[in-house]
Write a structure and sequence with these properties.
The complex is a heterotrimer of chains A (about 325), B (about 325) and C (about 270). Chain A has about 325 residues and is of the alpha/beta class. Chain A has a domain of about 60 residues. Chain A is about 30% helix and about 25% strand. In chain A, strands 6-7-8-3-9-10-12-11 form an 8-stranded mixed β-sheet, sandwiched between helices. In chain A, strands 2-1-4-5 form a 4-stranded antiparallel β-sheet, with helices on one face. The longest helix of chain A is centred in the middle third of the chain and has 17 residues. Chain A is globular. In chain B, the strands form 2 sheets. An 8-stranded mixed β-sheet of chain B has the order 6-7-8-3-9-10-12-11, with helices on both faces. Chain B has a 4-stranded antiparallel β-sheet with strand order 2-1-4-5, covered by helices on one side. With about 325 residues, chain B is of the alpha/beta class. Chain B has a domain of about 190 residues: 3-Layer(aba) Sandwich (Rossmann fold), CATH 3.40.50.300. In chain C, helix 2 runs parallel beside helix 10. Chain C is mainly α and about 270 residues long. Chain C has a single domain, classed as MetI-like (MetI-like fold, Orthogonal Bundle), CATH 1.10.3720. The interface between A and B is large, with 42 and 41 residues.
Chain lengths: ~325, ~325, ~270
């Protein structure tokens, strides 16, 4: 593989990406509305970096993941490993970016063996002879902590955690620079999820790859990732190093999220007053206006992302007028 | 000592596998539910927590049956209760809310009518007008802003959080003695979850409803439960006050579960995982089902399941390490 | 006992018997199927004539088992060719969607809006009588329903998560369609084929009864039913014999189809 890129070059560059979907409604009676899911999203991920994307349902994080993978149409520009989507063939594009999704069972063809599924990426790109492909599959199974004999088994014979390991292995077969993990441990038991987290960390030491880790769980994202972006209603509201976003959250939504996470170690039983206050929404305002405890008239416009970090520190972007 | 409302004695549940063989899904468990408390049941997939509460409600699937034991509730043994008596109890003295409110609500019937249904069944003395009034009141109490409008709406018009509130209303309207909540917030956003958990606590405090709360999330358990029991592979392994268990976990499995959750200070370090995976009902078992993964297994663990050991008032563990 | 076992047992037993008799008829029949015997007309079933004789003194049993061979051949050819055509159409239509899907489906709708008998009549008129004519006619009438089934299954799998993953791998659409989606439609297709066979047998019987199918003196169940019509009060066994064989075959095939549904689709 070509490793001559200078260190620090961005593996992923998302520039002003928006995505709409048409709400067709019920036949001719409803008008064709266009709803905006992603609103002018931009972010970059560097080499060997784990980037966490956090948000609740409807925030667009999965939509962004699908857009980056080229699975859905969008407006804007997305570049992976220097290749701009749309300017190169889809096949070429897929060599550099792979994915692991939430449900490992439905992620594999139930009628094909594990080994067959893991060979598909190699076959699709014409890599290796059949013997070499077999060997690569066996080696990868060991890398993800499974016995090489699993190659002959079917997905239904494996447990949830084992299946997810296979999916991770399949994603690594092409040695992509970027892997998108969309709620990769959300459907797994807690004890199994922790094994997968350790697996990601182990593989990261051995190989050079970046990851976009999409999750609703801010604790896990903080644990695993170097940088974090928080999304709300289709746009990024806060973005910075994991430490900055988790320990010094600035956007009211981030603060709300953090306060809402139930902590098993917390002693206080108190009903922490949730950091939100409801008010009637206003068209064209900040997306968080209708829930924000600090909203003022200034907030009736959409704020820009501004860097609130101290000089010399890493960028900490926040989209808020209050600060 | 609070009065015991529900007494599960030596309950054993069998499950018929695909190939016709019968295995124990829940093996000789005993516990009490005390009046006015919120008792949590924690475990990962396959531990039998859902099967236990389904048996309590008499809602088991066809392939699950009671092999032994009793569930004493007032004058009745819920295992042996007649279908007629069961109809009198469910929805009235005993009710349940599920993880997925969308599939629990009838999509074709308006909310107002559905929430009032338990009243119509169990309180024949009430008129339609009185029922509607009670529904309106209850919907307000569960935190719905515009109850009149919601009563005329259909389930698909509501958000996940609202539907769950509706479920709680429907389950509470007959002021049941026990409300079973089976992973009620697992499918909800973190911020919505916080509201629903607060609501459940209020239902417990204001109506005096005893709650049996099933979850896999220790953080959530800590937030709402007074006492908790930990289940593994069909057995109860530890039981006690929530703070006692989370601060001083005795069983190796409990310890392992706690360690699987990444906390702030663990960033950058590997999580200590429980090796291996949860056995399925078809896998052969040691007398102590956790033995293969424990790390501190002794001879005794392969011979008998441990006796109940009392560590302190109201904290018991089933582990040979405490013999 | 695994799901569907009872259905499979019943189904394979019934169809097995018929199949055995059909194959047997290639090598041996108690009597020549065309041998007429004026002295032995309309005889009731006996040891010499297991199903009795018809109006011309021909042994009904021999004719019935020979007839089964032709009927089954027609049914198998029909369903076989129909499956090939319908699979291609259904896969293409379902996967590509858009205008291709629209065109194919409207064509299918057009064909299915014609009564089957009418289609058979048209085909027979164009191609004149013959063994293959009936196969072609029946095939045309069966293609719409088969195509719709394959198309629905394709649509279902087109949006499956593992298909999305294959696209992420970079696998070509053609490979996805042929290697991954198509095999997953097999259980459904198999069930459809089995039911289709039983429908084809009924359809062939109907066509032959109406005189559109297999021509005399070749026996087929439909023909035999038609021939027995005139003598039904004197010699009911002439109708009952082919009738029983049809019922056995249909029940057998439907049982197998139900077994497949229970074991692989439920």
């Amino acid at each position: 593989m070509d490793n001559t890129k200078p260190a620090g070059e961005d593996i992923l560059r998302v520039e002003h990406v928006s995505n709409y979907y048409s709400d067709n409604g019920l036949g001719i009676l409803r008008s064709r509305k266009r709803s905006q899911v992603l609103q002018d999203v931009s972010l970059t991920i560097g080499r060997d970096e784990f980037f966490g994307l956090v948000g609740e349902s409807g925030c667009g994080k999965s939509t962004l993941g699908n857009a980056i993978l080229g699975l859905i149409p969008y407006e804007g520009k997305i570049t992976v490993a220097g290749l701009e989507y749309g300017k190169v063939s889809r096949k070429e594009f897929t060599r550099h970016i792979q994915a692991v999704f939430q449900d490992p069972l439905s992620a594999m063809n139930p009628r094909r063996t594990i080994g067959d599924t893991m060979k598909e990426p190699l076959m699709a790109h014409g890599i290796g002879t059949p013997e070499e492909q077999e060997a690569a599959v066996r080696a990868m199974l060991e890398t993800v902590g499974l016995d090489a004999s699993y190659a002959d088994r079917y997905p239904r014979e494996l447990s949830g955690g084992q299946r997810q390991r296979v999916c991770i292995g399949a994603a690594l077969m092409l040695e992509p620079e970027l892997i998108i993990a969309d709620e990769a441990i959300s459907a797994l038991d807690v004890s199994v999820g922790s094994q997968i987290l350790n697996l990601f960390r182990t593989i990261d030491v051995e190989r050079d790859f970046s990851m976009l880790f999409i999750s609703h769980n801010l604790n896990v994202v903080y644990y695993l990732c170097d940088r974090i972006a928080v999304m709300y209603k289709g746009s990024i509201v806060e973005m910075g190093t994991a430490d900055a976003v988790y320990n010094d959250p600035m956007h009211p939504y981030t603060r709300l999220l953090l306060s809402a996470i139930p902590d098993y170690a917390s002693e206080d039983d108190g009903d922490r007053a949730l950091l939100e206050r409801f008010r009637p929404p206003v068209e064209g305002s900040c997306a968080f206006y209708h829930r924000c405890p600090h909203a003022t008239d200034k907030c009736k416009k959409v704020p820009e992302l501004r860097n609130k970090a101290y000089r010399g520190e890493e960028e900490h972007l926040v989209r808020c007028f209050y600060l | 000592m609070k009065e015991t409302l529900l007494n599960v004695k030596h309950l054993t549940l069998g499950v018929t596998e695909r190939d016709g063989s019968v295995n124990k899904a829940v093996d000789d468990i005993s516990f009490e539910v005390r009046k006015g408390e919120i008792l949590g049941i924690v475990g990962e997939s396959g531990c039998g927590k859902s099967l236990t509460v389904m048996t309590l409600m008499g809602l088991m699937k066809d392939d699950v049956f009671v092999m032994d034991g009793q569930i004493l509730f007032g004058q009745d043994d819920l295992v042996r209760v007649t279908p007629e008596r069961r109809r009198q109890i469910n929805g009235n003295d005993l009710s349940i809310i599920y993880q997925e409110p969308m599939t629990s609500l009838n999509p074709l019937i308006k909310i107002g009518r559905q929430v009032g249904e338990p009243l119509r069944l169990h309180r024949k003395d009430l008129s339609e007008k009185e029922i509607d009034r009670m529904v309106l009141e209850l919907l307000t109490e569960v935190g719905i802003q515009n109850p009149g409008q919601i009563m005329k709406s259909y389930p698909h018009q509501l958000s996940g959080g609202m539907r769950q509130r509706v479920m709680i209303a429907m389950a509470s309207i007959c002021r049941p003695r026990i409300l079973v909540a089976d992973e009620p917030t697992t499918a909800l956003d973190v911020t919505t979850q916080a509201h629903v958990l607060s609501l459940l606590k209020r239902v417990n405090e204001e109506f005096g409803t005893t709650i049996l709360f099933i979850s896999h999330d220790l953080g959530v358990i800590n937030r709402v439960c007074d006492r908790v029991l930990i289940m593994y592979a069909g057995k109860i392994v530890e039981r006690g006050k929530t703070r006692d268990i989370l601060n001083h976990p005795a069983h190796q499995y409990t310890k392992g579960l706690i360690r699987s959750i990444p906390t702030r200070d663990q960033k950058g370090k590997d999580l200590i995982c429980i090796p291996g995976r949860v056995p399925s009902t078809m896998d052969p078992r040691e007398p102590c089902p956790f033995a293969p993964r424990c790390g501190h297994t002794m001879e005794a663990c392969r011979q008998t399941f441990p006796e109940c050991r009392e560590l302190s008032k109201d904290h018991i563990v089933y582990c040979h390490m405490f013999d | 006992m695994k799901k569907g076992t009872i259905e499979f047992r019943i189904g394979f037993t019934l169809t097995g018997i018929i199949l055995f008799l059909a194959i047997l008829s290639i090598f041996y029949t108690p009597y020549d199927i065309n041998a007429m015997d004026k002295t032995a007309r309309q005889l009731a079933p006996s040891l010499q004539h297991l199903f009795g004789t018809d109006n011309y003194g021909r042994d009904i049993f021999s004719r019935a088992i020979t007839g089964s061979r032709f009927t089954l051949l027609v049914a198998l050819s029909t369903v076989g060719s129909c499956t090939v055509i319908a699979s291609a159409l259904g896969l293409i239509s379902g996967y590509l969607g858009g205008p291709v899907d629209e065109i194919i489906m409207r064509l299918i709708d057009a064909i299915s809006s014609f009564p089957d008998i009418l289609i058979a009549l048209i085909v027979v008129t164009i191609l004149s009588y013959g063994k293959y004519t009936i196969v072609i006619a029946l095939c045309v009438t069966f293609v719409p329903s088969f195509t719709r089934i394959v198309r629905t299954a394709t649509l279902q799998f087109k949006n499956a998560e593992f298909v999305r993953n294959l696209r992420v791998f970079g696998v070509s659409d053609l490979r996805i369609l042929l290697v991954h989606i198509f095999p997953n439609t097999f259980p459904l297709l198999l069930s459809t084929i089995v039911i289709g066979l039983s429908n084809a047998i009924l359809a062939e019987a109907a066509m032959s009864y109406l005189g559109l199918g297999i021509q005399p003196p070749t026996p087929s169940w439909g023909r035999m039913l038609q021939e027995s019509q005139a003598i039904i009060y004197n010699a009911p066994w002439a109708a009952i014999a082919p009738g029983i064989m049809i019922v056995m075959t249909i029940m057998g095939l439907n049982s197998i189809g139900e077994g497949i549904r229970k074991r692989y689709l439920a």
